[in-house]
């Protein structure tokens, strides 16, 4: 029997959190090997574990996978979260990339210079309410089904719900005019595996703090 997937990253959301979410939603238990210093990262680099010298890295099925999208696609394929055919997969990829576009803006917000932060936050709020959430609301309205693609849970739904939690952390009012998205968030959050992941004490990471940012700077030397 294969061992649990092992996730190599530091103790923060960053680019690993979507992987944690997807594994959890698939009901897959995983272990974490948390980086605590630049030496920990150098060790992975020197022993050949990181193809492109960077994390996230996930050990799964005898492989050491890097590149977040490649990891997510493998997990989604393995656990039947990637549609039934090429057309469904194309839609899932399209919606996932939209989620990633807005998610990247939110992810990088803490790195924004203080004098630019308010402007960046305003831009995120505008893009959220005028571009991305209306698009996803329209998809759900167009077919009247429970999930984005094929009336079946896919990685697109999981990534979108993760994003909705981050949007709410920024400003709870941003979701107010999107009842179908709020319904999707509730539906996915109540799936037993996801519900467990959302409970205190799980491997889900909390919002970043100044301390998290300092740790990242220490490990990744930026």
UniProtKB/TrEMBL annotation:
Location of the GST C-terminal domain: 85-208
InterPro entries in the record: Glutathione-S-Trfase_C-like (IPR010987), Glutathione-S-Trfase_C_sf (IPR036282), Glutathione_S-Trfase (IPR040079), Glutathione_S-Trfase_N (IPR004045), GST_alpha (IPR003080), GST_C (IPR004046), GST_superfamily (IPR050213), Thioredoxin-like_sf (IPR036249)
Species lineage: Eukaryota, Metazoa, Chordata, Craniata, Vertebrata
CDD domains, alphabetized: GST_C_Alpha, GST_N_Alpha
Every GST N-terminal domain range: 3-83
Catalytic function, reaction form: RX + glutathione = an S-substituted glutathione + a halide anion + H(+)
The family this protein is said to belong to: Belongs to the GST superfamily. Alpha family.
PROSITE patterns assigned: GST_CTER (PS50405), GST_NTER (PS50404)
First-level EC class: transferase
The organism of origin for this protein: Rangifer tarandus platyrhynchus
UniProt KW keywords: Transferase
Enzyme Commission number(s) from the entry: 2.5.1.18
Protein name, entry field: Glutathione S-transferase
């Amino acid at each position: 029997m294969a061992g649990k997937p092992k996730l190599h990253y530091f103790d923060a959301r960053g680019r690993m959190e979507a992987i944690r979410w997807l594994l959890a939603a698939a009901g897959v238990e995983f272990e974490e090997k948390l980086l605590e210093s630049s030496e920990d990262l150098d060790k992975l680099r020197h022993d050949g574990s990181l193809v492109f010298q960077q994390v996230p890295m996930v050990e799964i099925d005898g492989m050491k996978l890097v590149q977040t999208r490649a990891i997510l696609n493998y997990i989604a394929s393995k656990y039947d979260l990637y549609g039934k055919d090429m057309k469904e997969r194309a839609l899932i990829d399209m919606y996932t990339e939209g989620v990633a576009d807005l998610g990247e803006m939110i992810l990088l917000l803490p790195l924004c210079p203080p004098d630019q932060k308010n402007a960046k936050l305003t831009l995120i709020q505008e893009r959220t309410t005028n571009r991305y959430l209306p698009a996803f609301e329209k998809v759900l309205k167009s077919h009247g089904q429970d999930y984005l693609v094929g009336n079946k849970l896919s990685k697109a739904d999981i990534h979108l719900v993760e994003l909705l939690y981050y949007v709410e952390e920024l400003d709870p009012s941003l979701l107010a005019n999107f009842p179908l998205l709020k319904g999707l968030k509730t539906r996915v959050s109540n799936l037993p595996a996801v519900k467990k992941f959302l409970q205190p004490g799980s491997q889900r990471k909390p919002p970043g703090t100044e301390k998290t940012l300092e740790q990242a700077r220490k490990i990744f030397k930026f």
